[in-house]
Write a structure and sequence with these properties.
A 4-stranded mixed β-sheet has the order 1-4-5-8, with helices on both faces. The protein has helices at residues 8-24, 27-36, 41-49, 68-81, 86-104, 107-117, 163-169, 238-274, 286-319, 324-352, 354-357, 364-376, 382-394, 396-399, and strands spanning 123-127, 143-146, 150-161, 171-178, 188-194, 200-205, 216-227, 231-232, 276-277, 280-281. 55% of the residues lie in helices and 15% in strands. A hairpin with a 3-residue loop joins strand 2 (143-146) and strand 3. The protein has 402 residues and is an alpha+beta fold. The radius of gyration is 21 Å and the shape is globular. Helix 5 packs antiparallel against helix 8. It has 14 helices and 10 strands. The model has no long low-confidence stretch (mean pLDDT 96). The structure holds flavin-adenine dinucleotide. Flavin-adenine dinucleotide binds at residues 125-129, 133-135, 159-161, 208, 216, 373, 376-378, 380-384.
């Protein structure tokens, strides 16, 4: 049976989030956060109270055991409310990477970080990218050396979301490095790295182009002793867990871009129904209508694919009816399409607004700056998505690069 409807609970859930965000995070507040470079504490607490933070974790671990379709609804609504995508980043990094950490970590990590993160009293992020590059995960320089009851970490991570917030509220990062370089990507191990461990030094906060309300920073690890209880998954599985985390994040990134694009179209439509040129409303010109039709058609196609992909995630995790690689192909498709679509919608609706669109009185520029981060690379660069799509479509024998 093919059924495209959401459940009644999911419809009510969407309504409840939209209502809460409309009341607590109107566009003026999104602008304020963007200007002040800060996510207000009441909003973070509100997300925790609503059960949205780390919602993918099972109830017994502090989450609400949400499935991926429901979590995707939340990501879409957060993107709709905060078109700068700062709050969606705070949400989705934890819903996705927190999910993977929880799946493979010890109770120590759950108690020290994840349960608190679900209440907004801690932060769990992803610390993969290094100064030498982010796409080539197997090319990383970070090393883990086995000690007695701990790993010793040396290396540096950069362009990492939420470092300032994590420093402030506590928590840490999923970090991978090599424990056995001779084994290639099969010689990597993942750990939970609290930012307050001795030997961890926050290097900087970048002056970003967009999503200003959440920080992007970096940290150095110098002879950091990470207790064995902080290891995530088995030794040598770090690369694979990293790929699983990227996959989980990609559907939520895509949904937040779809939400932001939907809001941009609404803002644009409101404007063209009011604004007159040559004696009639802009909305009455077919030149404008065709532009809208093009955006609306692409929007529906991409949104449908995003939810199909979320549904496939649920099938993968709950029934194993799809292999992880089958789902990865779709995740890369939506991660490739949705941010570029959102960027296109922001650019085109901004053009409808003439000079007003080019000012900060108009919210759309926050959206351009925000979704661009997902076109550039956060949770995987565009060409890397194409590599995955080509590999899973054409076959590995044709797409091996080395
Ligand atoms: C705002 C922001 C927040 C981020 N937050 C995090 C975070 O929380 N945690 C984290 O670990 N990382 C984070 N990142 C980093 C992100 O994961 C990387 O930007 C991404 O993986 C790409 O790595 P890179 O920037 O080093 O680009 P590179 O890997 O150097 O790639 C540069 C360009 O080359 C292209 N390219 C690379 N390899 C190939 C190839 N084989 N064929 C064709 N083209 C190729 C890429 O598509 C890209 O356009 C963030 C990035 C941004 C912008």
């Amino acid at each position: 049976m093919l059924d495209f409807s959401f459940t009644e609970e999911q419809d009510l859930f969407r309504e409840a989030i939209r209502e809460w965000l409309a009341k607590n995070l109107p566009m003026e507040r999104v602008r304020e956060n963007d200007t002040n470079h800060e996510l207000p504490k009441d909003i973070i607490k509100g997300l925790g109270d609503l059960g949205l933070l780390c919602m993918t974790l099972p109830e017994e671990h502090g989450g609400v055991g949400a499935d991926w379709v429901t979590t995707t609804i939340a990501a879409e609504e957060l993107g709709y409310a905060d078109i700068s995508v700062a709050l969606p980043v705070f949400f989705l990094v934890q819903a996705s990477w927190g999910f993977v950490v929880d799946k493979y970590c010890t109770d120590v990590v759950r108690d020290e970080c994840l349960r608190k993160a679900a209440k907004g009293e801690s932060f769990i992020g992803i610390g993969v990218t290094e100064p030498g590059g982010g796409s080539d995960v197997a090319g990383f320089k970070t090393n883990l050396t086995k000690g007695d009851g701990h790993w010793v970490l040396n290396g540096e991570k950069t362009y990492i979301s939420g470092t300032a917030e994590c420093k402030e509220i506590g928590g840490g990062y999923f970090v991978t490095g090599y424990n056995d370089r001779s084994a290639g990507h099969r010689g990597m191990t993942a750990v939970y790295l609290p930012l307050n461990l001795e030997g961890v030094e926050i290097t900087k906060r970048f002056d970003n182009y967009g999503r200003m309300a959440i920080s992007t920073g970096g940290f150095k690890m110098t002879d950091v002793k990470v207790p064995d209880e902080y290891q995530i998954g088995d030794t040598n599985r770090g690369f694979y867990l990293t790929m699983e985390g990227f996959d989980a994040a990609r559907v939520l990134v895509s949904a937040s871009c779809v939400g932001a694009a939907e809001r941009a179209m609404e803002i644009g439509m409101e404007y063209i129904k009011e604004r007159k040129a040559f004696g009639q409303e802009l909305a009455k010109y077919q030149g404008i209508q065709f532009d809208l039709a093009d955006m609306a058609a692409h929007h529906e196609a991409i949104k449908t694919l995003v939810y199909k992909t979320a549904w496939m995630m649920d099938q993968k995790y709950q029934h194993e009816t799809f292999t992880p690689l089958e789902v990865s192909k779709y995740l890369s498709m939506v991660k490739y399409l949705a941010p570029h679509h959102a960027l296109d919608v922001f650019r085109r609706t901004m053009l409808w607004m003439g000079a007003y669109g080019y000012t900060k009185e108009c919210p759309l520029e926050m959206g351009i700056r925000g979704v661009m981060s997902y076109c550039i690379g956060a949770e995987g660069a565009a060409n890397i998505q194409k590599i995955v799509i080509a590999r899973e479509t054409l076959g590995r024998d044709w797409t091996r690069t080395r």
